[in-house]
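Quick one:
INPUT:
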């Protein structure tokens, strides 16, 4: 039997062929291991007590974090409703006027907040007493709220 001395049939190849074979074996192993480690670092239980990113982490999305934050007019309305119950509607209306003066961006919400205060005042104080606190804050929207709560 004769062995061929032709370079094309000889095994071994040059350094490029050896590097290519090594990469062909090592690269898939590295990719599988890095993917496995990435999946292992995700906290799949949903407990966000660790600094590791959880699979259902909603803080990653900017839209959902903004939705969780309350609008300034909602915070103000809720605070004024509490103040109305703890003190009286006059104090709440004065604070509403001050808040609108301090933050003019709240002016577009002033009527709805004053109307909500009027309705709440009727529930807490009754229609006659609630009407006695009416004043021209936000174009008499408080009085409008009192009237609509009577119906």
């Amino acid at each position: 039997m004769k062995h061929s001395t032709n370079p094309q049939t000889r095994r071994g190849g040059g350094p490029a062929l050896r590097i290519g074979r090594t990469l062909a074996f090592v690269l898939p192993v590295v990719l599988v291991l890095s993917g496995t480690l990435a999946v292992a670092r995700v906290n799949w239980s949903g407990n966000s007590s660790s600094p590791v990113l959880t699979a259902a982490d909603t803080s990653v999305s900017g839209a959902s974090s903004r939705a969780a934050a309350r609008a300034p007019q909602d915070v103000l309305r809720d605070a004024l409703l509490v103040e109305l119950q703890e003190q009286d509607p006059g104090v709440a209306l004065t604070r509403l006027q001050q808040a609108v003066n301090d933050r003019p961006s709240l002016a577009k919400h002033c009527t709805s907040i004053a109307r909500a205060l009027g309705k709440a005042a009727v529930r807490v104080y009754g229609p006659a007493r609630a009407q006695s606190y009416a004043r021209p804050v936000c174009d008499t929207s408080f009085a409008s709220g009192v009237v609509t709560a009577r119906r």
